[in-house]
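Researcher: I'm preparing a figure for a lab meeting and need a structural model of a single chain. I don't have an experimental structure, so a prediction will have to do for now. The sequence is pasted below. Please return the structure as tokens so I can convert it later.
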Amino acid sequence: MKLILMGVLALAASVSVAQQAVATSGVTLWQKGIPRQGIGQKDDYGNHIVSISHREKNGFVEVHETKADVMIIQSGTATLVVGGKVLNLHRTEPNELQGSGIEGGQKFEVGPGDVIHIPIGVPHQYLLKPGTQITYLLVKIVSL
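Model: Understood. Here is the structure written out token by token.
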């Protein structure tokens, strides 16, 4: 019992030291994939942005003129539509466009563990069946 307690105390001390090292080295640690300030947190590092996205309904079509997206699905399922012609395309902010749908795009069923790379300028949209959800880690890579 004493040996187990010593092991637990040593583990706790090493975790504390590791967390202090992370805090002072500029490294960001999202334990268990959850940002410290919650799902709305976006960490902007200048040349890339890291966030968690959660959807419970269809998303708009997105087209990024200066950013590529890398997504890692954490939970849930959806249909990802990429490419094709964007319907009702309009600018929402500098270098960002949105639309209401995609005609003629390629469809992929995606789920936990899938890794997706969307190059700059490629239209993309998540479609969800009623009652479903999807959560994914999103890394936006900024073209400098």
